[in-house]
Amino acid sequence: xxxxxxxxxxxxxxETPLVTVTVVDTTGSVPQERGAKMIVTAAGRVHGxxxxxxVERKAIAEAQEMLRGESKETSRFVQWNLNxxxxxxxxxxxxxxFEAHNAGRWNIVVFGAGHVAQALTSxxxxxxxxxxxxxxxxEWIDRLPRSPKLTPVLSADLPSMxxxxxxxxxxxxxxxxxxxxxxILIEILRTRDFPYLGVIGSNSKAITLRRDLExxxxxxxxRASFHCPIGLSIGSRHxxxxxxxxxxQMIQVRDEHREIAKGYNSRHS
Length: 269
Description:
Elements: H1 4-13, E1 18-27, E2 37-41, E3 44-48, H2 53-67, E4 75-81, E5 93-101, E6 106-111, H3 115-124, E7 129-135, H4 138-141, E8 150-154, E9 170-173, H5 178-191, E10 196-199, H6 203-215, H7 220-223, H8 239-267
Parallel strand pairs: 6-7, 6-9, 7-8, 9-10
Antiparallel strand pairs: 1-2, 1-5, 2-3, 4-5
């Protein structure tokens, strides 16, 4: 029988979404002591216990709600009166701490696997995110960093990949050049609406790209909805410094979205 931490490490290494539940405090008659731990996945309890019976069923349901994304919280304290809140005959009080892992992960999609994409993905795999990198060239796909956080995709038809991207993806276009970025961008602007969309390039490329989009019938609102040039105005033209500037901008946008969502949830809770 593996220990709690052995089971946790195995699930974390496999990138399995899970919630750990810990008994942090008790008062009166309760079914488990402080420090008891449980691991819950979408399939249910996989290790440990916080008391069995009704309290455990309620804790599992709470954990699975977090895994389904019904709550934007990644950690939560709850305090239950076992008689009033859980329906048990014992009248004790239990306080639990829930912490989600690998759940609600930040999705990032990079079109292109060239020099800057190599630097970008090498940086991103150290963050709490999942990266998908798409390119038609096997030799560049093979150079991507090996990580469970990165999924390489070999495709000769890059615009066709847009339909299958998750709605919450942060999307970056850095393929072989303007002629290969443009059809992907047009497909995105016509059919999807991502929280972040960036296209690598200079100011002159941005002007040309937006003019081409106008000729393609893309509205002015849509033409203004993506970042080009991409990244914050920091660093040099070195691929790794460009990568730092792009990640900085994406983190900035991500955190702005989280603050907006937090404010919305607090007003409607």
